[in-house]
Amino acid sequence: MNTLYYFIITGGIGQIFTALIYPYIRHRVFDWYNDVKQLKPLNQEIARTYGHYIQGLNFSFGLIAILIPRHLANGSVLALALTLLIAAYWVGKVATQIAYYPMYDIPKNPIFKIGSYGMNTLFVFFATLYTALCAFNLYQLL
Description:
- The protein is mainly α.
- It has one domain.
- The protein has helices at residues 3-29, 32-37, 41-67, 77-99, 110-141.
- Helix 1 (3-29) packs antiparallel against helix 3 (41-67), helix 1 packs antiparallel against helix 5 and helix 4 (77-99) packs antiparallel against helix 5 (110-141).
- The protein starts with a helix and ends with a helix.
């Protein structure tokens, strides 16, 4: 197995980590559940559903990367399409972090500050990894 596959698997592990830590971050860092309770019932369900979508996508992308890393870099049209989708997802996440999240007050607890740097580093890593994989697959197709 070459270095590229180790990067893909590492990215997969990181994505699963983000899915597993997501409920803790919503609850402890953002006090999300109390904020959601202030919404109308339908909007509460919509917010929860979107939260589950995010968690499910992160977990699914991670599982794909761990189980079939070779298929994410084999130069097929499907590999290109999937890596383009995942790259767009993570680039969008990084853009959202930069554009909107600095406006919010993250608790000053050192673990949360370190955690925010760690999570942002992971998001940039995922965006870079999948953008590079997308370019790699496109190059192989041309």
